[in-house]
Amino acid sequence: MGFGTVLIVAAAFAALIMAGGIVDILRLGRVRFATAGKRRWHWILLIIYSGPLGVLLYAAAVRPQVAHPERYVDDQQNGLANGPSSAAVGGHAR
Q1: What is d(CA 6, CA 26) in angstroms, rounded to the nearest whole number?
Q2: How far is residue 94 CA from its own chain's centroid?
Q3: Number of C-beta neighbours around residue 17 at 10 A
Q4: Tens-digit pLDDT profile for the chain (94 aa)?
Q5: CA dihedral 80, 85, 87, 92 (to 10 degrees)
Q6: Chain centroid, CA 76 distance in Å
Q7: Which residue, of 46, 61, 87, 88, has the greatest Cβ tally within 10 A?
Q8: Rounded Cα–Cα distance for residues 53 and 75 (Å)
């Protein structure tokens, strides 16, 4: 197996990962992205420009917020967008 074959297999695998990420974005739908305050075309362009790394960024950072917006909307409304403070957890504010 020559270097050209390895390169073609790697490029095909990267294209499959990118296609899977784009299909996932389109499958979740526009309404869910709007609810989460995200724009899906930005993420599609990121995947196209950065390849499989864009899919990793999308899967780690945005997909949980889009797939389950109810987990994040409550935190944003309560002012806990950056995580709970020590006073909210039971500690004392100083």
Answers
A1: 30
A2: 36
A3: 17
A4: 789 999 999 999 999 999 999 999 999 989 989 888 889 999 999 999 999 999 999 999 999 989 888 787 655 555 555 555 444 555 555 4
A5: -170
A6: 18
A7: 46
A8: 28
